[in-house]
Amino acid sequence: MSDSQWTEAAAVDEVPADDVVGMQVGGRDIALYNVDGQIYATDNVCTHGHARLCEGFLEGHEIECPLHQGKFDVRNGKPTCAPVTEAIRAYPVKIDAGRVFLSLG
Amino acid sequence: MNTETIAIVGAGQAGGWAAQTLRSEGFAGRVVLVGDEPHRPYERPPLSKAVLAGDAQADTTHLLKPEAFDALRIDWRPNVGATFIDRAAKQLHLTQGAHVSYDKLILCSGGRARRLDIPGADLPGVFSLRSIEDAAALGAALLAGKRLLVVGGGWIGLEVAATARKKGMEVTVVEAMGRLCERTVPPEISGYLLQLHIAHGVDVRLGTGIERLAQNARGGLTASFTDGREIECDAVLIGVGLVPNDELAREAGLACDGGVLVDSQCRSSDPDILAAGDVAAWQCEWAGRRMRLESWQNAQEQGIAAARAALGIAVNHQPLPWFWSDQYEVNLQIFGMPTPAHDVVVRGDRNSGSFVMFFLDSGKVVAALGPNAARDLRFARRLIERRTSVDAAQLADLQVPLAKL
After folding, report:
1. Domain named FAD/NAD(P)-binding: which ranges (chain B) (predicted)?
2. Which domains are seen in chain A, by residue range?
């Protein structure tokens, strides 16, 4: 993968420890997560009720949607708790010089 | 080859989750899902909000996309009712003549809108709201500049009132009891809801029963009330509660009392028959009493629990009750079962758009609710579930993060 495919999203320290923030990256609504210092990125809109995951509740590797308490694994976007049945898209992340880059592909 | 059959009566949210869970738990036998509606399993909450307003299509409420549902290989019988359970033969008889032999049977037959026994209740322009078809019919009658009368100041009535106001209707809400949502919230929240609706221009009349509806000369309806007053309107929504569809269970001799009685493993008095969702009554530990929980959460969670129990998996269905309502710009959520006996601690300004009200019993938070406070309430839920002892002053102190308590 060439460097041109990476899109700069934020500074690492804009993603608070063990929490989630939402931001626009390359025209998309993205949620960034910080789990024990590791950054993950997914689409921000829940596949169930169209709520924004950045307003949800991060517990370990799971983000809980604020609307209906469905959960996704932030590492791969897979649904882990009802009512969500469809995965959200997870994006590859790289950190370079304190900046977060995403491969939006 | 596994030829075991699990039959589910009712293809609503509880039935849909039961069917789906049987498959996700690896059940490879036959799953028969009998539903008297033409639709695949769907969620009902949007029917009084986005779907009613025309902001969302009805199929957005479906639990699964059609291809995902079809992939579950469910023997789904739309537009079919269940007529009789032959418990001795373990057969479920259907309206279309056939019967299904079952090994386990899960009753998710839900409920129906309670009807009002008053003259004129069947007139054109008088609606109730339970199904997608009901929402389509009522939605077509929500016309700007016309007047809607809502009979019943409960959740359905208030959500429809809010949707109708957004559509530009004049709205009157009449409630026979002394306050709004009296069965489910403490007086403080009834007062909050009353102010919310008054502020949005709704004419709310408490302690007012309806006596009759009649067609009037100008093509609308005239409603007469117990206080002798009358109003003219163009449409009426009756939202006076739900009647559980437990007739099938009662006729089969299962223990019922305002719903099918089940234990926390969702088992009825017949161990091969389980029940879940709006039709099931069980001893809710959080409420400390036997009840039916008519909520989105319970339909989902009890449907899942019943399916697991039917497969012999140990379950203990005791989720912390969680309920929400969307009205105007307000999302009100309630965790637990607040009662007037609890001590109340308010965090934030009660007159602002967002605050949390905690309900304490012996220094522990047992319930919490609030408008537009989803994130704080998520922490409150943790306090309740962990039965944390808290200091009331800290709870009320906005400088103390709830995460730290």
Report:
1. 6-303
2. 6-103 (2.102.10.10)
